Amino acid sequence: MKIGIIGMGKMGEAVAQGLAKYGVEATLRGSTRTEESAADVRERLGMACTTNNAEAAQGAEIVLLCVKPHQAERVLREIAPVITADQLLLSICASITTRQLAEWSGDKATVIRAMPNTPCLIGEGMTVFSAGTGVRPQHLEAAERIFGPLGRTAVVEESLMDGVTGLSGCGPAYVYLIIESLSEAGVKIGLSRETATLLAAQTLAGASRMVLERGVHPAALKDEVTTPAGCTIDGLMALEEGKLRVTLIKGVLAATERSKSLRNNA
Length: 266
Ligand SMILES: NC(=O)C1=CN([C@@H]2O[C@H](COP(=O)(O)OP(=O)(O)OC[C@H]3O[C@@H](n4cnc5c(N)ncnc54)[C@H](OP(=O)(O)O)[C@@H]3O)[C@@H](O)[C@H]2O)C=CC1
Ligand SMILES: O=C(O)[C@@H]1CCC=N1
Fold this sequence. Notes:
By secondary structure, the chain is α/β, with parallel strands linked by helices. The protein has helices spanning 10-21, 35-45, 53-57, 69-79, 98-104, 137-147, 161-169, 171-188, 193-214, 218-225, 232-241, 244-262; strands at 2-6, 27-31, 48-50, 62-65, 88-91, 110-115, 125-131, 151-155.
């Protein structure tokens, strides 16, 4: 599989490193804006990297677009002359629609919009795809070959992709905030920072795996922890008083709204 990765920042690099780490057979050629970044990628990742986007895209079976949303139009118009109908353009840009991607790249390639998240770097990512016009099962299979080994994947209608961005794309940041807050609580009750962070992070990881592996509703799992007249119910009451649920819901909705509006200023 020949993949041209346009943009080798946090996400481009996470994908490249993930593919190498999980043994996915692929020839990677990256591109960046500055020679400094390209040299850094060549040196640290040992892969080809250039500042010539057309060179990275030309001949690749999959062109993976990993630049910031506001850079997408310029980059796609730049590579449009070398894009061909047999290529798959796979974009991870927040907000940018399959229609915009197709138009800017010259309406030739098949287009899939994807929303991964940073845990792809350790094979624990969540990547969601939505298909543009003319996408066939083999195109989704190709996208799956890249992101499948980097975690879990799902496919949704494009109308849901801004919400997906607000939930799982941005989600790791919310979770880090929660881990940091729980760790602060541990420090407050006298644990070392290191121990407090371990307790907080492993508790989130373990609870997440319970949801994923047992397939039980989170409310039922919460009930298993909550002893009548015990300690947990007092903790839960304090969290409900602080409106934790509605605050998290509002966080996802705010990010979703931002994802809807970004493309108009791209
Ligand atoms: N960060 C995240 O958690 C997630 C991000 N995304 C999406 O991924 C995309 C990339 O985000 P992220 O990796 O965080 O961004 P970064 O800022 O870390 O990386 C951007 C990369 O794009 C390169 N670039 C900029 N302009 C050009 C250009 N004209 N030609 C070629 N390369 C260029 C930069 O090169 P240089 O270093 O030389 O400037 C850099 O390598 C965004 O669209 C974002 O919406 C999706 C899911 C999660
Ligand atoms: O904050 C952002 O815009 C990007 C998109 C998803 C995660 N980070």
